[in-house]
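Listing S7. Sequence submitted for prediction.
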Amino acid sequence: MKDALDREGGGYRPLLTVRDLKVQVATEAGAKTVLDGLSFDLVAGETLALAGESGSGKSMTALAIMGLLPKPMARIAGGSIRLGENNLTGLNERGYRKIRSARIAMIFQEPMTSLNPLMTVERQLCEVLLEHDICDRSAAPKRALRLLQDVRLTEPEQRLKQYPHELSGGMRQRVMIAIALACDPEILIADEPTTALDVTVQAEILDLIRTLQSEHGTAVLMITHDMGVVAEMADRVIVLREGKQEEAASVQDLFSAPQTAYARTLLAAVPRLGTAPARPISESRKKIVEVDDLSVRFDIRGGILGRATARVHAVESVSFHIREKETLALVGESGCGKSTIGKALLGLVPWEGSVRVGGVQTLGRSRAAMRPVLRDIQMVFQDPGASMDARMTVGEQVVEPMRVHGLAKGSELDDRAEWLFKRVGLSSDMLSRYPHEFSGGQRQRVCIARALSLSPKVIVADESVSALDVSVQAQVLDLLQELQEEDGLSYLFISHDMAVIEQMADRVMVMRLGQVVEEGPRDAVLGDPQHPYTKRLLAAVPIPDPTRIRQPMPEIAGVENASPIFPLGQSPERIRLFDLEQGHRVACTEATSI
């Protein structure tokens, strides 16, 4: 990458030049400007980050560059976008088809919605290669295989034959990167490429982008609200707010001396490991949730007769308890069983073992018999948009649990709904709106209000802030802690964000392949981790400090081939936890199966 002196002296030719870009969208009230006067240059080999909250114009910038603005609802109302000598704002769709993938490629935020569910991975890769005449039809499959090998996808020959739904989130993201790099583009636009990924997979994806960039000299436009990713990946940063450039600086200058109040607020909202105050553990409080030997298994069926051929041991012999006004955090990668445990507590999946909520045994209870228990335990899901009914107003959805349980009716419901909205920081005039009329943070507040409607004792928060901007995330976390302090709530807090876990948790359970490998007080588990897997999770956390270099993740024997799937009749070896001190327990680290 050219250094700052070269850039200021003009002795370089930028790959991409954006000047005074203005984008408008059509609304009932008329044209609304969502991007106003954005200008920047992008040089070969450098990474420029566009940072800011949702609605700041980050993704709209990427769509404008790619010629993917949803027409006729959105349009470029002014300015220019130049790729070398080509003015992209004047291109028609046929002209853009020659540019996309060949010279500018994009990794979209959600690969599941970007990949075609009806086409195999091989077919989707070959489609790009053939569209841009990279190779002929006979050579395309071999080229597709090499692309999957380049992005370090395990068992690439098998992955070529699979469909997107058969891959994990990290695998799908690697396929998206392979498609984006198929034509060796000059510019790679990465739109929130790691938002919903676990920290270890996120670290692998970032390392992959960095390696491919150094090998090919690709310029990267990184769009993210994760300031840890910005610190780790970017050379320069542009902070956007409500469609306008708030601040532009080198990554070192932005983090060491931000010039605007908004940038300072954005950086202050980032949770940082090692900054949370110590939290004493109280053993005198009453146990609200008691779980013993909880197991959840699913059969995999195949063949003409649909017989079971293997079994997924999603959760295997897990035991824990949650006390009054306590937060127990479940940590681990996707597929480790975190969310499955939360669903089992609410009876949403079949399970074995013992679960007591408020002293009541839930094993064998029908849905009708579970109704009184569910008043004491509620759930806040990861995606508030997907967990709400788009056809009902948010007010109707908040009072629905009370109507089902017969706790209130008539004007009482309206009064209760207004009180709940006020409780979570929303105004009563929002009750008549529909979910799509709210931001992500507001929808999550509505979901919290709905969970509070039955005055539960325990709330299962399943990745409840993972997709939120850092400032909105901070507001929701503050709200959860405030509700716990005032209402005495207990939380089962499920997350892969270690900094958030440190902020929220009293105790931490680390899970891998359906079993617990380490547990104990938050300060002991996060401050002095003993298991290699816990150390691996902590090493993968992106640090919002560009002067620090993230250490390589420790290797774990057997990690590549480890799986919770076993042939019928076989089971995983049960992990034994050994006591260290003050409730800190860890699995034996000699066995490769853990």
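Caption to Listing S7: primary sequence and predicted structure tokens for the chain studied. The first helix runs from residue 4 to 9. The chain is about 35% helix and 25% strand.
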